[in-house]
Amino acid sequence: PDTPLSQLQWRVSSIPELAASVHGPPYRLVLAPRHNWFGDSSLTLVVTDEFGFADSLQTLVSVSAVDDPPEFLMAPNVRLTRSHQDSSLALDQLLVDAESRPDQLRLSWDGADHVRIEERHGRLVLSAPTDWLGAEQIQLLVEDAEGLRATSPLTVTVVPSLPPGLIGAPTRQGLAAGEHFLLELDGLVVDPDDADPDLRWQVSGQQQL
Predict the structure, then answer these.
(1) Alpha carbon distances (Å) from 104 to 33, 50, 107, 124, 182
(2) Residue 67 carries which DSSP code?
(3) What is the DSSP string of 143-177?
(4) Cα separation, 127 vs 78, whole angstroms
(5) DSSP single-letter state for residue 30
(6) How far apart are CA 86 and CA 134, in angstroms?
């Protein structure tokens, strides 16, 4: 009653999920819930006059949930060897929904004319045919309980074979005259579709060895 409104000082405290601030004059309270957060929370308003006298008010704020559509985190591109399977696509790394777990969403696909797709233990299992090579673009569709949808392309390329890859191969090896060095080749190669005994090795470039 004895201090102009413009000289009052306001403070507000709330949980981290509910940002609250006072702006003015004229003073107003601004609330901003964190993205994808909803629920009930209390906040405290404290007003202080120029003489140091203060009063406080505690109020309950209720933030209602707004159903957001699911989202795909990526547009997968998979290379498959003919007659082989791939299970690298985990659903919890492929899609996300603020209100639902991946196993609560309905996932379907369209355009898989050659590649066979199964949903198994939280993963997409892709199976390549034995008599077809090429690329196929498949449309993935995910739907939540409220009927909100999202789509993403899935590109699958079926090839006759995938090349092996060398890992950790030494680039330089010192030897004294008359000594020998044994290099275990099986530990240097990774091949996604062939066993180690089926690989053929060649050595070139040596002149004095």
Answers:
(1) 25, 56, 9, 15, 54
(2) P
(3) E-TT--EEEEEEEEEEES-PPPEE-S--S-----T
(4) 11
(5) E
(6) 16
Q: Where are the alpha helices (DSSP H) in the chain?
A: 91-94
Per-residue pLDDT tens digits for 158-197: 998 777 777 877 777 777 777 877 777 777 777 777 777 7
Distance, CA of 52 to CA of 3 (rounded, Å): 11
- Structure token digits, residue 123: 């993963």
pLDDT tens figures, 79-108: 998 888 999 999 999 999 988 889 999 999
Paired with 116 in beta bridges are 127
Model confidence, pTM = 0.57
Q: Which residue has the tokens 């590109």?
A: 155
In order of 3, 4, 25, 135, the CA distances from 100 in angstroms are 51, 50, 42, 32
What letter represents residue 13's amino acid? Answer: S
Q: In angstroms, how far is the first alpha carbon of the chain from the final one?
A: 100
Structure tokens at 171: 């680039």
